Amino acid sequence: MAETAEARDAAVRGEPRGRVVEGLRAYRLIAAMWIRSTMAYRTSFALTTFGNFAMTALDFVAILLMFSRVDSLGGWSLGEVALLYGLSGVSFGLADLAIGSMDRLGRRVRDGTLDTLLVRPAPVLAQVAADRFALRRLGRVTQGLLVLGYALVVVDIDWTAAKLLLMPVILLGGAGIFAAVFVAAGAFQFVAQDASEVANAFTYGGTTMLQYPPTVFALDLVRGVTFVVPLAFVNWLPACFVLDRPYPLDLPGWVAFTAPLVAVGCGALAGLAWRAGLRSYRSTGS
Amino acid sequence: MGVGSGRLYAAVAAGGFRRYATYRAATAAGVFTNTVFGLILVYTYLALWDEKPQLGGYDQAQAVTFVWLGQALLAALAIGGGGFEDELMERIRTGDIAVDLYRPADLQLWWLAADAGRAVFQLLGRGVLPFAFGSLFFPVALPREVSTWAAFLVAVGLGALVSFALRYLVALSAFWLMDGTGMLHMAWIAGLFCSGMLLPLNVFPGALGEVVRALPWSSLLQAPADVLLGEAAPLGTFVFQAAWAVALLAVGRLVQSAATRRVVVQGG
Q1: Chain A: nearest CA to B181, how far in angstroms?
Q2: In angstroms, rounded to a whole number, what is the distance separating the alpha carbons of residues A169 and A260?
Q3: Which among B43, B181, B193 has the least Cβ separation from residue A217?
Q4: ipTM, two decimals
Q5: Dihedral of the CA atoms A91, A196, A112, A18 (nearest 10)?
Q6: Do A65 and B198 touch (CB under 8 A)?
Q7: pTM, 2 dp
Q8: B46-82 pLDDT tens trace
């Protein structure tokens, strides 16, 4: 408990590290509360988790159907596409589990219930992120892990220490990048409260795009998801390294390892956008 | 049905249209998202048809057209859900449905009118722009004859009717289940998988393809698309869609009368 008291003192003094610790604590408490409330109806929880799993599995079924008619897509085999799918699926699933509730922010801005969060002594971002924390989203993570497992079994990878080391880095870096996109999309909802669906184009659209090989898409689109919204770092570039394939856009070999840096950079930018959005917030007054 | 009740349902439909027309930012957001998803899908389809030209009897331009049709019809035909069914389920759960049953209007027709208004708005508001974008920037296969376009619109209308009939049944399940979230999810999955939204149904292999093409969901996207692409005779398609619409609407009636006998009005 001494640690939290210390964190609270640091928060009062306005130290950044204290705010992070305090935010994580608030997040943990709110998420735990929602988990307890979900577990009150265990059957419902089991069913919705399965629904989450099945709905996510649908796009892998589409890929399987495609490969029932062809042997390769954009020069990639089913196993290799499954590797892309698994990496992107787990990364996105983790980000979605952690802060996928951000899309409810627009509604809170609209109906004025965001005010309730503003007067509580905890960082707003942590409260919004943990709002209605949905453990059922483990369904998506599980589905991604299963496809990733399948890919690792069927694809013939020439394992080295670097590749082995890269695997967890890919998943965490990818989750970080997707989390930054979620936060940026949340910030956007302060401006356009009704337009939360725009976020889907980048989150769900992004993960759908990453399920297919980069060779499938037009170069301008690949440039866009490499340099503008750097989703290519989630799985395309690391997967090219693991599979010894040429990188899209002739990028140098070391970029596959920069995913964590990209995630931190994106997180910082998304954080700035979030603060700007929060400052522009005017209550409905009701 | 007299002139008076005809006017009533027309007013309900107009209300459904206006209601969705007020969500301008949401509509713009929907147009953007549908366009982005169309873009991603088009490239995957192009890669697929590069690998196997004439897959499912479509050429590449037809496959591209199919993608943009899917994005244009997704919201209008509520293929992934998102119509009146959430609201009707909520009214059943809370008991407000008792008030609806006392109205001098038919429950099924009332919701059909409201959903028709919504569908027309979604088609114009969310459908036209992504489709125009796709037709401008990608090779598409569009018919020149006005009659084909007219037949296509009839097929879309019949598809909307089948979609309504399916979702009405899903909503009525709330009379027995109380929490209909699970049913909504199942209906969503079936809709996406069996309508052609996931992949054109003529690409599905073997017996699986034959089964999904015979199910009602093929009326939603596959049937209008094949009429527009000249892959199916309009008349036969209309008969198929109308048969499913009549059958499902009739089942909806039966379930409705069974369900309303269950209604117990709580409180005073």
Answers
A1: 8
A2: 7
A3: B43
A4: 0.88
A5: 30
A6: yes
A7: 0.90
A8: 999 999 999 999 999 999 999 999 999 999 999 988 8
